[in-house]
Design a protein that fits this description.
By secondary structure, this protein is mainly alpha-helical. 53% of the residues lie in helices and 8% in strands. The protein has helices spanning 32-48, 52-63, 69-86, 96-108, 115-134, 142-145, 162-171, 179-191, 195-199, 245-252, 273-276, 278-288, 294-307, 312-319, 324-357, and strands spanning 5-6, 12-17, 24-29, 206-207, 212-215, 218-220, 228-230, 239-242. It is elongated and about 95 Å long.
Length: 359
Amino acid sequence: MSGCTRRKDGRLQKAITDPRTGRRVYFYGKTEREINRKVLAFSRKAEAGATFKEVAEDWWEEHEKEIARSTAIGYRMYIQECIDYFGETPIRNITVKDVEQFLRDIAGASGGRAKGSVQHRKKVLVMIFKHAIREGVADINPASLAHTPKGTGEKKRQAATPEEEAQVLRSLADDDLPLGVSLPPAFALLAGMRRGEICGLKWGDIDFDKNTITVRRSVDYSTPSLPLVKTTKTAAGVRTIPLLSLLRERLLRVSPRNPETFVCSGTVNPPPRVFVTWHYTNTYQVKYNIHAGLHQLRHSYATRAFEAGLDAKQAQALLGHASVKTTMDIYTDFRKKSLEDAAQKLETSLTAKNAETSK
């Protein structure tokens, strides 16, 4: 029995060195033939190298600790899609064409995904292959060389309609709804705050003398039953924004206003997620005939900032964007729309003028 020893339980045992890790690996069986089959299968696998699944899971174990809980939830879905596709394929054997085919399949799924959605998957693949190169189990990063398929569109988030904005402003006179239902739309439209920032706002963050709101924290609802109060999405998220008069008047009608309590709950605990999800959809939106979500109302705030003549850097500071590029992308859309509106007005005016002179 070459290289095999018999254990006390009667089974045979054989140990070899894993060429990938230098560690001893043990195999067990009732016969030498059984053990040799296991050793041969392992050696073939070792020769092919680590599988995509092994590398992806190893990378995720390391990376998950470095990112926010809410971000991790999205990443898990992307990673699983990648593992389902590449699975047991040796990572060293995956080519640029393989990655591009995966991206094409992703782009065509669910009736066609937006460019950003495909880019998220590609970004995850790039990080996994970088990890593989660091670990010495891959030589190149095919994901970084792969092209995103053509035909994937940019699905732009739309602002609320003027009618919906007007309804939000009318709702400021309504003191009957719970604060966790009635105030988030007002903060999104009149202060440009994100949902988590609104839920993390305390009365002590509002200065009625200086008419300012300071955004210091956010609430993460990725585990609904255990809301996590944390710092803002990015360092740029910590900011001071104007407290507009319409919102100020509504807030002054709330009593008491303890500096340590959360504005939207009136307690030392943040409002339950159900207030800004289920109740917002089934109570607030139904009552005021509004279809726009909270982020669309935040987008409306950005629209008004553009219309008021604020430049991109000023808007970036108010909205808490980490990069001015994000604000510029939004402003570019606004400018394009303004140009189209101007062209239409000129077309109408000049056509009418031409009709008059032709008589």
